[in-house]
Amino acid sequence: MADLTAGAAPGGDRDARAAARLLAVQALYQMDIAKTPLENIIREFVAHRLDVSMDGVNMPDADAAYFENILRGVVENQTPIDRRIDECLSENWHLARLDSTLRAILRCGVYELAFGGDAPTGVLVSQYTDIAHAFFDGPEGGMANALLDRVGQAVASNAPPPE
User: I need a surface site. Which of 35, 77, 97, 136 has the fewest CB within 10 A?
Assistant: First the structure.
């Protein structure tokens, strides 16, 4: 698995937020596949998954409040998030055609870029791209990078979200 906290001080806020981002992606995936309600997924992850290793890799403890903020933010803003993603995809692609994990990565990234983050755009794009590379061996990492970069540029230039 990729080192999703590279460059962060051990135990620092950046580590906790990077871990929260990864877990938020996993939680959204579970919500999508298993149709688990938001409140149930938050309770499950906070109680059992925020401070455990994954695939034998020790992860820093995730920031529970940040994890919950991402999940709630994606759910509350899903329509404009999905519109932003769709407008950035190639003409013949739509969000529904994407793998569930990639959809979760993009939704979390777009939420933080457009609605909820105080982290620099470059950090967000890099971390969500690293998450994509951790899950996929193919072009999905590059696709996530390009799409999130486009969203970040649009947000930076104060482009309004699609209606």
Answer: 35
